[in-house]
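User: I'm curious whether this sequence folds into something compact or stays loose and floppy. Could you predict its structure so I can see for myself?
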Amino acid sequence: MQFAKRLQALSHNVFADMDRAKTQARNLGREIIDLSLGSSDLSVAEPTIKVIETALKDRHTHGYLLHAGTKDFRVAVANWYTNRFGIPVDPETEVLQLIGSQEGTAHLPLAILNPGDVALLLDPGYPSHAGGVYLAGGEIYPMPLRAKNDFLPILEDIPAATLAKSKMMVLSYPHNPTTAIAPLTFFQQAVNFCRQHNLVLVHDFPYVDLVFTNEADTNFSSLAPSILQADPLKELTIEFFTLSKSYNMGGFRIGYAIGNSSLIQALRQIKAVVDFNQYRGILNGAIAALSGSQESVVQTVATFKHRRDVFIQALNKIGWQVTSPQATMYVWAKLPPSWQDNSVEFCTQLVAQTGVAASPGAGFGKAGEGYVRFALVKEPEILRDAAAKINQFLLR
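Assistant: Here's the prediction. I'll summarize afterward.
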């Protein structure tokens, strides 16, 4: 049997590789502390659950849902965004419902790239960004992220020959895996750069709310700005959101895109070929989440902030000095010198010997080598236990 060549670029995935390693460790009798996947262990708010439960009993919600049926959701999205960032959004032409933001980031390249076209991607970065480019037959130019540059790409370093073939740039801040935040000034620079070189600018924004503020911070949205604040007329940008992180709805697979109307329409054309929309009951729950009290979001952020503090303190106590992240649900830790060039082996051996599962930095891109990502998806006492097991591993 012969398969398409495009599958060759998809043969390795950081999450699939670690899943195999976790399975092998379980088969050896290890109890797994899984910090490798950013899947929230927190509960969905009860009002949201009740709305979905009510919909389940309504047979009118059990059929296919076409685009017109998503209008109430799109209106709720537009209202939420305008209330948050002060930029008006047309729910008819500038919003598209998605089955998770990953669907959007993976499918958008099919609407933008022809075979051989180049996409400018962050390195390290989220795997689906690269996967979508490969599916479209495009080529990737990795923009390396370095700690000395606050994990922001140096746009001026991109060669002119590469820019001549480029059609899109993908950003994502707060950033997975490095946890970095991009200031609005950088987004303004990126918008001007993309305008100058006729590039579509894509921003993946799943961690819009997961920013750890200080009491002195009063303008929350300025801490994690939207790319559309740098392009309020939506001339060349599209931004992806999800309810997986802020509202702990990862398993419900609900997200959306906001942006340039032509980009929204192009993505809608791709989506029409691939799938129908999400179940109406889930959309109703998402409307309740976006439109109702945001207290559950506040509590979610506070929970991850506390877990961050506990885990960082525990790592520092065992002698692993790690920078405390300002955002996301992760810790991006530089590996000890003896493991600097082999993050995959570190994570493989760590889970095999201790049951603690993490994600190797190299799985997110070449520039991620030398780091490991821990997801803060366990209770504080389990995080402390994980740090103790890591200490035993490092002392062997």
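Summary: Residues 295-317 form the longest helix (23 residues). The radius of gyration is 21 Å.
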